[in-house]
């Protein structure tokens, strides 16, 4: 029985989600057709109503993440924290599903979602995306004493704060233009059991060597002035480079950087970061790892909706490291193993 899934947003033509998902379902042998749907905000509710029959899930991008969270009939603890969903799932079988960050340190808010027979369950896999990308960049396990830097204060910044909690950071440094607008991120960090400090954008270059990792969530080219400051600090000897000239995060004076923007790539800040000896990954890596978790959820939903035994067995025996590698290659990323 064929099922459907799609990515929704506006604009949507640039999305890499179809390449990622289609590669995974072809590798797994799952009869899931994955498309894309350009939707205006006022069209979301009608489209969701039409998805009740035959759909296993939706990947949700801007401008629909907050509206999708509100429209869902049930939500993960993570979505309740973030107020945004990048994933909607129909009929997921695990009523107690808890992904990374659903049990949050410091607040006990790890309640499972309640399944609904008709409406979708809302989740947010951006956390897996950020965690996976930073680990691929060479981030070592944290002990609770380290600080993670987050640049920007939008929706991706909220996911980055939660990802830092999952990684066991003890503190968040928020590099923002407006301290007032960063107040919700400070509250989120504290709810996740971390300390938080608000700093100016122009403090990043000097502070970076003391951070365990940095996630830049600014729009494309918005971080270009930071790149100039970083390059200047490196020239002046204020940012130590890797002793052996490599870009490994554990060898450099700079920690791993995830720049959530990926067009153009390399971005100015990514280039300056690498020149100073730091490891860098783009937002495509984040997209990869959040999509892997979506594929897991959609595959489980397809099985729960009455798949034949052979399909169920394929899902249960899936090698997810292999699936991740297939998906990475589909969008031109380096092999995973």
UniProtKB/TrEMBL annotation:
<keyword id="KW-0057">Aromatic amino acid biosynthesis</keyword>
<feature type="domain" description="Shikimate dehydrogenase substrate binding N-terminal">
    <location>
        <begin position="7"/>
        <end position="88"/>
    </location>
</feature>
<dbReference type="InterPro" id="IPR036291">
    <property type="entry name" value="NAD(P)-bd_dom_sf"/>
</dbReference>
<dbReference type="InterPro" id="IPR022893">
    <property type="entry name" value="Shikimate_DH_fam"/>
</dbReference>
<dbReference type="Pfam" id="PF08501">
    <property type="entry name" value="Shikimate_dh_N"/>
</dbReference>
<dbReference type="GO" id="GO:0019632">
    <property type="term" value="P:shikimate metabolic process"/>
</dbReference>
<dbReference type="GO" id="GO:0005829">
    <property type="term" value="C:cytosol"/>
</dbReference>
<dbReference type="InterPro" id="IPR046346">
    <property type="entry name" value="Aminoacid_DH-like_N_sf"/>
</dbReference>
<comment type="pathway">
    <text>Metabolic intermediate biosynthesis; chorismate biosynthesis; chorismate from D-erythrose 4-phosphate and phosphoenolpyruvate: step 4/7.</text>
</comment>
<dbReference type="GO" id="GO:0050661">
    <property type="term" value="F:NADP binding"/>
</dbReference>
<dbReference type="GO" id="GO:0009073">
    <property type="term" value="P:aromatic amino acid family biosynthetic process"/>
</dbReference>
<protein>
    <submittedName>
        <fullName>Shikimate 5-dehydrogenase I alpha</fullName>
        <ecNumber>1.1.1.25</ecNumber>
    </submittedName>
</protein>
<dbReference type="InterPro" id="IPR013708">
    <property type="entry name" value="Shikimate_DH-bd_N"/>
</dbReference>
<dbReference type="GO" id="GO:0004764">
    <property type="term" value="F:shikimate 3-dehydrogenase (NADP+) activity"/>
</dbReference>
<keyword id="KW-0028">Amino-acid biosynthesis</keyword>
<keyword id="KW-0560">Oxidoreductase</keyword>
<dbReference type="GO" id="GO:0009423">
    <property type="term" value="P:chorismate biosynthetic process"/>
</dbReference>
């Amino acid at each position: 029985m064929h099922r459907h899934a799609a990515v929704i947003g506006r604009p949507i033509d640039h999305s890499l989600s179809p390449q990622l998902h289609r590669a995974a379902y072809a590798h797994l042998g799952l009869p899931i057709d994955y498309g894309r749907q350009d939707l205006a905000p006022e069209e979301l509710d009608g489209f969701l109503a039409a998805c009740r029959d035959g759909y296993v899930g939706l990947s949700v991008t801007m401008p629909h993440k907050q509206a999708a969270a509100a429209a869902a009939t049930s939500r993960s603890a993570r979505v309740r924290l973030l107020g945004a969903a990048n994933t909607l799932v129909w009929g997921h079988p695990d009523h107690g599903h808890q992904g990374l960050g659903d049990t949050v340190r410091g607040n006990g808010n790890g309640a499972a979602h309640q399944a609904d027979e008709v409406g979708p369950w809302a989740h947010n896999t951006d956390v897996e995306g950020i965690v996976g990308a930073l680990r691929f960049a060479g981030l070592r396990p944290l002990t609770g004493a380290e600080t993670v830097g987050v640049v920007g204060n939008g929706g991706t910044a909220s996911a980055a704060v939660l990802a830092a909690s999952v990684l066991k950071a003890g503190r968040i440094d928020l590099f923002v233009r407006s301290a007032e607008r960063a107040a919700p991120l400070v509250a989120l960090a504290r709810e996740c059991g971390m300390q938080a400090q608000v700093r100016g954008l122009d403090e990043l270059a000097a502070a970076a060597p003391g951070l365990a990792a940095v996630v830049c969530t600014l729009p494309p080219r918005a971080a270009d002035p930071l790149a100039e400051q970083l390059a200047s600090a490196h020239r002046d000897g204020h940012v130590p480079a890797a002793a052996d000239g490599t870009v490994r995060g554990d060898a450099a004076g700079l920690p791993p950087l995830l720049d959530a923007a990926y067009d153009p790539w390399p971005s100015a800040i990514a280039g300056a970061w690498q020149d100073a000896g730091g490891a860098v990954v783009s937002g495509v890596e984040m997209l990869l790892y959040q999509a892997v978790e979506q594929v897991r959820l959609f595959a489980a939903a397809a099985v729960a909706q009455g798949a034949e035994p052979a399909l169920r067995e394929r899902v249960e025996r899936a090698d997810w490291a292999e699936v991740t590698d297939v998906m990475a290659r589909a969008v031109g990323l380096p092999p995973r193993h």
